[in-house]
Design a protein that fits this description.
This protein is an alpha+beta fold. It has two domains: 247 residues, BirA Bifunctional Protein, domain 2; 92 residues, Anticodon-binding domain (Rossmann fold, 3-Layer(aba) Sandwich), CATH 3.40.50. The protein is 37% helix and 21% strand. It has 15 helices and 16 strands. Strands 1-5-6-11-10-9-7-8 form an eight-stranded mixed beta sheet. A five-stranded mixed beta sheet has the order 13-12-14-15-16, sandwiched between helices. α1 packs antiparallel against α5 and α12 runs parallel beside α15. The chain is elongated, with a radius of gyration of 28 Å. It starts with 13 loop residues before the first helix and ends in a 5-residue tail after the last helix. 35% of the residues are buried. The chain binds histidyl-adenosine monophosphate.
Length: 422
């Protein structure tokens, strides 16, 4: 029997979970400021959903976890969150409730990719989708929100790259220009790239192939190929970001892996991450909801990978906010444990984190354990304390100990922590 962890997945242990909570809480706080509401969708959907909207991407071609259930339904573990949210938007008629047009989500996604640092087969995204407006304000708002989020987490050296892939009407013009520019060197390119040239020349732009990159170096500014409407849209987004001093860089070769994008696309990257340097990606997708059978509903959003973001927090030595203090209660004998439970419950009512170990009864083992647990205070209760109706309280950081009347427990911790007993 092989019970090992499946390749590309990981257990997230308690120490690590502190980072996850920090990221998730900060994200929720920021999304709330922009009036985004949480939505939760199933982790599996009909395979058709993804085949319909991201059929051209490697995700659907090579990376989907698909299966047939007992009822013979073709299902897929979701590889991303945008298509499921769009599906939920249609299924639940969310277009009728304006307060539900700005949504965020978080949860596991699944892609059969080759695992490496920052790339997993089960990974977790936090994403937002702002649905229903084609105004460039919405594009700029979600980009600003991502910037605010990464800044409030304390991240440094992050870059926002931005580009426009145009609307349906400009896409053929852009593609024709790319083809025209590369045509004379086509025979020098790999078979794979020649295929892309035929079917999806836009995707050639972000290829890592060095030969192609040298041929692409003199490519004229693709913004020229945009329709006036798309140019105006993109320029508006840029001027909004400028206006708010959001640092960004125009990157004409930025096209994204998923095929549903129209107009604005963007990515947040960090050079500190190595090969998998993209933390966050997003853009506008004006046709997706319509392609899934809904009415014409333009939308824009982004998602970031929690694992990659945490890698970056650690690399940049960003420390977590201080945990609330932990009080360790040491009973110096089995006969004092019941009393210690009362003390613990009282302190929990005050809002303190409290732990008791029922296996240890001698002072030295309690001290060792309380230090390992990084407790701030230890309350010692043994024969002396029982006889004198007192408690001994040890400040484990300052290494000072004092004795207080047992009846003074709550006021003592109230004045120490500023908390109030309710
Ligand atoms: P994506 O660029 O495919 O976009 O993924 C977004 C982020 O998810 C990436 O920037 C990366 O941080 C993380 N990610 C992707 N694949 C992996 C992996 N195998 N392991 C670890 N992290 C990964 C989307 O998924 C779009 N749905 C984003 C979007 C929302 N566009 C509009 N709205």
């Amino acid at each position: 029997m092989d019970y090992s962890l499946p390749r590309g997945t990981q257990d997230i242990l308690p120490d690590e979970v502190d980072y996850w909570n920090f990221v998730e809480k900060t994200a929720k706080k920021i999304f709330d400021l922009y009036n985004f509401n949480e939505i939760r969708t199933p982790i599996f959907e009909s395979s058709q959903l993804f085949n319909r909207v991201i059929s051209e991407s490697d995700i659907v071609k090579k990376e989907m976890y698909t299966f047939t259930d007992i009822g013979n339904r073709d299902l897929a573990l979701r590889p991303e969150g945008t298509a499921p949210v769009a599906r939920a938007f249609i299924t639940n008629n969310l277009n009728r409730s304006p307060q539900h047009s700005k949504l965020f989500y978080q949860g596991p996604m699944f892609r059969y990719e080759r695992p490496q640092a920052g790339r997993y087969r089960q990974f977790h995204q936090i994403g937002v989708e702002s649905i229903g407006s084609d105004h460039p304000f919405s594009d700029a708002e979600v980009i600003t929100m991502s910037y605010r989020l990464f800044s409030s987490l304390g991240l440094k050296n992050i870059k926002i790259y931005i580009n426009s892939v145009g609307s349906d009407t400009c896409r053929p013009v852009i593609e024709a220009r790319i083809k025209q520019f590369l045509a004379s060197n086509l025979s020098q390119l790999s078979e794979n790239l020649q295929e892309k040239f035929k079917h999806n020349p836009l995707k050639m732009l972000d290829s890592k192939d060095e030969t192609l990159q040298t041929y692409l170096s003199g490519l004229p500014d693709m913004r020229e190929a945009l329709s006036q409407q798309s140019k105006d849209h993109f320029n508006f987004v840029i001027s909004y970001l400028d206006h708010l001093n959001i640092p960004f860089e125009y990157k004409p070769t930025l096209v994204r892996g998923l095929d549903y994008y129209t107009e604005t696309v963007f990515e947040v990257v960090s050079e500190d991450l190595g090969a998998q340097n993209s933390i966050c990606g997003g853009g506008r997708y004006n046709n997706l909801i319509k392609n899934l059978g809904g009415s014409h509903t333009p939308a824009v959003g982004f998602a970031f990978g929690i694992e990659r973001l945490i890698m970056l927090l650690k690399k940049q030595n960003i420390s977590l906010p201080n945990q609330p203090i932990l009080v360790y209660i040491a009973a110096l004998g089995k006969e004092y444990q019941m009393e210690c439970i009362h003390i613990a419950e009282d302190l929990r009512n005050l809002g303190l984190r409290v732990t008791i170990d029922y296996n240890k009864i001698d002072f030295n083992s309690h001290i060792k354990l309380s230090q390992k647990m990084e407790a701030s205070y230890m309350i010692i209760f043994g024969e002396d304390e029982f006889d004198n109706k007192t408690l001994s309280i040890k400040d484990l950081h300052k290494r000072k100990q004092e004795s207080i009347p047992a009846s003074n427990l709550i006021p003592y911790f109230e004045s120490l922590t500023g908390l109030t007993y309710v």
